[in-house]
Amino acid sequence: MIYRSEHQESSSSEHVVTTLQQMAARLAALKGYEFAGEYDPAKKYDNLYFVPADTLLHKAALKLGIRDENNLFGGCVHQPFASTKSITHPLVDAAATAPPGWNHAFPDAVAASVLLGFSAFSRRDAQTACSRLLPQGTIRLKPALGIGGSGQMIVASQSDLEAALATIAPDILACYGLVLEQNLDQVATYSVGRAQVDGNRISYHGIQRLTTNHQGESVYGGSSLYIVRGDYAALTRLTQQPTLLSAIDQARCYDAAAESHLGLMASRRNYDIAQGVDSSGQVRSGVLEQSWRIGGASPAEIMALEAFAADDGLQSIRVSTHEVYGSAEPPGHANVHFQGVDSEVGAIQKYCTIDAYEYSAIET
Question: Could you confirm whether domain 81-183 is CATH 2.60.120.460?
Answer without folding.
Answer: no
